[in-house]
Amino acid sequence: MSTPHQILATYWNYVSFKPMQEAIITSVLDGKDTVALLTTGGGKSLCFQVPAMALEGICIVVSPLVALMNDQVKNLQEKGIKALSITGGLAFEEVRTLLDNAIYGNYKFLYLSPERLQQEVVQNSLRQMNINLIAVDEAHCISQWGNDFRPAYRNITVLRELHPLVPVIALTATATPEVLEDTIAQLQMELPAVFKSSFVRENLSYQVYFEEDKLYRLEQLLKKNTGSAIVYVRSRNTAVETATHLQNLGISSSFYHGGISKIDREERLRAWRAGSISTMVATNAFGMGIDHPDVRYVIHIQLPESLESYFQEAGRAGRDGHFANAIVLYSEYDKTLIKKQFIASLPTPKDLKQLYRTLSNYFHVSYGEGEFTQHNFNFTEFCATYSLNSLLTYNGLNTLDRLGVLQLSKEFGRKSKLQFLVPSEKVLDYFKKDILASVIGKTILRLYSGIFDTATFINLELVAKKSGQPIQEVLKVLKQLERDALIDLMIYETDATITFLVPREDDKTINVVAKDVEVLHAKKQEQVKAVLRYVENDSLCRSIQLVSYFGEETLSPCGICSVCASQKTTTNTKETKVIAAAILQLLEENEMSSRVISEKLTFAEAKVLSVLQLLLDSEKIKMNTKHQYFIV
User: Cystine design at 125: which of 99, 134, 304, 315 (Cβ 3.0–4.6 Å)?
Assistant: First the structure.
């Protein structure tokens, strides 16, 4: 058995753990039930992956997020670690094969959605496994008081019944004291060791501004930025429009949402991390796996749906420990909009029954069938077909997802069905006259046999990658081949995939979870109220407001948020001038980072950071690309 440090170095190329990680790992290796409440960027995954690697057997990981499961499995596999996942949309025989692999194939990790734990075939296989650890990701989902309550999480207790001696580690980034207590009870944890990192981010300045012309304020903020930035919005259209506006102002930017292809998302993420794009305008789809240290600004130009989601998104700023800003810009209309989006348009059980029946009919799901079947889904087309209210329908789909009735994967997909209509000789003659058509066409012929005999689904992203051509060029060539009567082509574009998680039983399906609908609605209403209280309270330190929401008591104002900064300018001007003079005197000697400046001065770090921000705002100093300040 390798030690945790050896495993960390061998597979992750790190020489040391982040704060609290080692203590959490030691607790797990000692066989204790463990709770890891680590904020965004705290490294939760390693807290179960490292001990699972150190122990004989396989770790069962329960997660509600299919994209996150697939991403973690891919990352583990790239490190040479055997891992697999069983999510929705898999046929029974595929599930059985994967479970056999988990039992006999020397795998270290099996990722499961909570709904899969209900299946008898899964439970029978779990009985046969040598399970070394049960990891519950997004553990707050098991609590009805949690940010993202999912009744299916209650199925996790099956694992405890099958393997009562195996330790459980519960992981989450945001949980109030009430949620934490309920999570421990629901998971039947016995005297767990609880590790809770502080929610205080001393280098992060939380700022809230009432602003009617948000785009102008956004321009002023980003033109001063020397690092990376994220601008969060609520819709795909707003992401595109805002990114275009910033580009026209000369600010390098792009947009990111679930409606762009996987290849485009990966390319834009790489460009943003490399610095060739400074600003990413994104919906909340830009979240999973975003671990970029050089983010100086996270700016919300529309109100977030909850303080839990805001804290996670804001926490992507300043992960390198240097000064960073988390800013909310809002107008009076935003306060009306958030109520309309998240309270006025909440679906009733009656609405959900109608939506569920409509979906089942739309996909031709027979009564008593449909469990774990997956379907491509175009939201706009669906709403237009049945003349549905788009906002109510969208909220209804999300509610059905949380209730475990279906799984909604909000990712853009482009599938095409293609068949060559002429003999291969004629196709090859055509290719001789068109080099681009030859490159793309021959790539398709190599990838898909039988395409002359029958219509075949093809993956356009794969064709683009293998041919080395942009996706738009692939589409252009295929449409050209269709016009020239060489192929029969059908292109399907989807907003998402929907996986039905239970057999169709119409009203009975919704009746089972009707009480949970009321709980979800009450929680959503309280979350919206909490967001509005946060943006409207301009008398209490922003950091104190946020950390107290999560049950952490701190009496010390941060000194650098928008509230503290406004109070300092009116109540403590003398001290501010003294600190500013000391900073300027230091910078006359050399360019310095905020950390070096704080070390050289005797003032509290929070006060130094606050004055640095004031000096930046007054343009007496600037910051270079190495995060060092210098006198203008």
Answer: 99
